[in-house]
Design goal:
Function: The purine nucleoside phosphorylases catalyze the phosphorolytic breakdown of the N-glycosidic bond in the beta-(deoxy)ribonucleoside molecules, with the formation of the corresponding free purine bases and pentose-1-phosphate.
Helix content: 25-40%
Number of strands: 9
GO molecular function: purine-nucleoside phosphorylase activity
Subunit structure: Homotrimer.
Number of helices: 7
Distance between the termini: 35 Å
EC number: 2.4.2.1
CATH class: Alpha Beta
Organism: Paracoccus seriniphilus
Number of domains: 1
Length: about 270
């Protein structure tokens, strides 16, 4: 039996057999959303091989339960490439999610905006991404499944439903392109200008490896950025991780409203 299958069995013993309809990975400063789920919380240290989410602002636990009447699996934190140099650091958690029978993955992150019309405290729905960090979580995979098409990496149907939920909740949700930098240092003003030339609308240090892994595993994926700052050189604000954590709650309230509406309405028979 594979490691992910063993972990899935362990999780079912604690949380029941019903497959989650949605997996949700929470970004920096957004982990409190997992506390809104009615269900069972399993610390990552009970899930052998799961990351310990060594970044402040993350909550290292998996919560399986119900939110707005939908069965969800919420990851209160993620492992980042910059923590270990491994782009596939979230592979086992996502393999476990797939082994639980989940088919849809929603990701959130804290990001820096490159557009004046997407200000700190706002949200951005990812329409596409640029893997500027230059690594790939499927390096080393031996099967031909590693050649994953990424044309529809950000699921159009889920994006449309998120957009509709945003309209219904009167939450602005512009679409844009997210550019993945490796971190942990923030980008230089020159790198921000380069990202703008490439067509990026926001920058961050996560999410792209998980989208690639999700598509590899057959999950339908969508992602939303909570904008916590403007990119380096685009404002006078001081960029830091503490600033990111302080600003994330401004967008988190909007994100929670949007996600609750989405879960209430999407795919209802």
């Amino acid at each position: 039996m594979s490691k992910s299958a063993e972990l899935a069995d362990f999780i079912r013993d604690k949380a029941g057999d019903q497959p989650p309809e949605y997996g949700l990975i929470l970004g920096s400063g957004l982990g409190h959303l997992s506390q809104q789920v009615e269900g069972v919380a399993i610390p990552y240290d009970q899930l052998d091989g799961f990351p310990h989410a060594g970044v402040s602002g993350h909550v290292p636990q998996l919560v399986i339960g119900t939110l707005e009447g939908r069965r969800v699996a919420v990851f209160g934190g993620r492992a980042h490439y910059y923590e270990s140099g491994r782009a596939d650091a979230m592979r086992l958690p996502l393999e476990t999610l797939a082994a639980l029978g989940c088919q849809k993955l929603l990701l959130t992150n804290a990001a820096g905006s490159l557009r004046t019309d997407i200000a700190p405290g706002g949200l951005m729905l990812l329409a596409d991404h640029i893997a500027f960090a230059g690594n790939n979580p499927l390096i080393g995979e031996k099967s031909d499944a590693r050649f994953v098409p990424m044309t529809m990496a950000h699921d159009p149907e889920i994006r449309a439903a998120l957009g509709q939920a945003a309209q219904q909740e009167d939450v602005e949700l512009p679409e844009g392109v997210y550019c993945w930098f490796s971190g942990p240092s923030f980008e230089t003003p020159a790198e921000i200008r380069a990202a703008q030339v490439l067509g990026a609308d926001a920058v961050g240090m996560s999410t792209v490896p998980e989208i690639i892994l999700g598509r590899f595993l057959g999950l339908r994926c969508a992602a939303i950025s909570v904008i916590t700052n403007m990119g380096a050189g685009l404002s006078d604000e001081s960029i830091s991780h503490e600033h990111t954590k302080a600003m994330a709650p401004l967008g988190a309230a909007k994100l929670e409203k949007l996600l609750r509406r989405f879960l209430r309405d999407h795919d209802r028979d």
